[in-house]
Amino acid sequence: MFQYLMAGYLHSWLFPFFFTITTETIILWLFVRKIFHINGRDLPLTIVIAAGIFANGFTHPQVWFVFPFIFQSYTIAIVIAELFAFIAEAIFYNIFLKITIKRALIVSLSANAFSFLAGIFLHFFVNSKIF
Predict the structure, then answer these.
(1) What is the Cα–Cα distance from 20 to 2, expressed in whole angstroms?
(2) Phi-psi region of 129 (alpha: psi -120 to 50; beta: other; left: phi over 0)
(3) What is the rounded distance in angstroms from the CA atom of residue 100 to the CA atom of residue 90?
């Protein structure tokens, strides 16, 4: 029974996982190139894409598979998990991309806020049978 439940939970995680990686990596790229004006010679596209994939590949599974089982309150789990993702990804961007901590915090907050709100929006429409 547990394996069946976990298989369903894993299946429900796949779309949000790839959606998050895609949206947050695009936002990371937009910030690096268009807002911070860091050119491709100083920070190649492959490095930016790798940073988005690795940062989210580390935090997203923990947000879905660890935090909900630590806290009894779903609201508290979400708040703590999102704070964890925001801070962990900012630290990763600061170290891996060699951008200032201020820039790393800005891009991490923006990317996480967008993907979180977009996820809520999509969840509402998918569950309301509009899509």
Answers:
(1) 26
(2) left
(3) 10
pLDDT digits (tens, 9 = 90+) for 3-48: 655 667 777 889 899 999 999 999 999 999 999 999 999 999 999 9
CB burial of residue 109 (10 Å; 0-12, 13-18, 19+): middle
The two tokens of residue 40 are 């491709």
Note whether 99 and 62 are within 8 A (CB).
Answer: no
* C-alpha dist (Å) from residue 21 to 4, 39, 40, 48, 117: 26, 22, 21, 12, 14
Tell me: the pLDDT tens digits for 96-125? 999 999 999 999 999 999 999 999 998 888
Q: What are phi and psi of 7, to 5 degrees?
A: -65, -40
